[in-house]
Model the fold of this input.
Amino acid sequence: MPLTYKWALFMAAKRTHIVIPEQLVKEIDRLVGTRQRSSFLTQAAERELLRRRQFEAIESATGSWKDAKHPELRFGSVQWVKRLRRENERRFQKPPYR
Done:
């Protein structure tokens, strides 16, 4: 969950010096204003860190899926979902009265 502009209220802040192209600074300032620059850059960094952690998780999980452990999907997930839905519909049908 990205932090909002109030990020400094929730975590310790550290002043740091970064070097970025002047044109990029101008564009950021045009979009969010000079007083919101740090918040904008913090949110952008958080999103990028999240994206990279997700990518690392995907990479580390590569090869963990084994078809043999999921025989119910041998005809594809679409067929499996259709079968589940049919079973569910049958479950809620009223039984015939005698």
